[in-house]
Amino acid sequence: MTFGNNTYYRSRSKRLQSSFQGLLNWLRTFLRARRRSISPQFLLLGTLALFLVGILCSQIIYRQVRVGRVRQEIARLEERNHNLRMAVNHREVKVARLKRLDRIQKIAMTQLGMVSSDTVPVLEIETGQWAQLSPEGGHSP
After folding, report:
1. Which of 36, 41, 120, 131 is most buried as measured by Cβ atoms within 10 A of its Cβ?
2. CA triple 65-70-76, angle to 5 deg
3. d(CA 38, CA 45)
4. Could you tell me the pTM of the whole model?
5. What is the pLDDT of residues 8-57, one digit of tens each?
6. CA 97 to CA 124: how far, in whole Å?
7. 137: closest CA among 118, 117, 123, 116?
8. What is the 3-state secondary structure (H, E, C) of the chain?
9. What is the separation of C-alpha 24 from the centre of its chain, rounded to a whole number of angstroms?
């Protein structure tokens, strides 16, 4: 198959022309066998019917191509949706891990220097007010 001198296209054209000639010869022998000529109205009607069938076939092919493209788009969007759901689940697990009380208490004690309420004693004064004892032994109102 050489493209420079178009031998491929010439041979293809000759094959199509010979198959078309074969079809015309068959049609001629068919008409001679029936010993009837085709009226122009019948020929026009046949051509119109063939044209309409061609349009119908092209519409069917076009719709099948569109359906294929829409299915590809649906598959792509479903995969993206799945990936986004996985990311959301991962974030929810991470948030739940970060919200644990023991983790928050550990950060408060180590990084912020807070003290647990269990280690600081609290005394009730007769006036009904609460006082907290400082670690040095005194109390603060």
Report:
1. 131
2. 130
3. 11
4. 0.44
5. 556 666 666 777 777 778 877 877 776 666 677 888 888 999 999 999 99
6. 38
7. 123
8. CCCCCCHHHHHHHHHHHHHHHHHHHHHHHHHHHHCCCCCHHHHHHHHHHHHHHHHHHHHHHHHHHHHHHHHHHHHHHHHHHHHHHHHHHHHHHHHHHHCCHHHHHHHHHHCCCCCCCCCCCEEECCCCCEEEECCCCCEEC
9. 50
> Which tokens belong to 58?
């092209």
Amino acid at 45: L
| 133 strand-pairing partners | 139
Q: Report residue 122 as tokens.
A: 């609290």
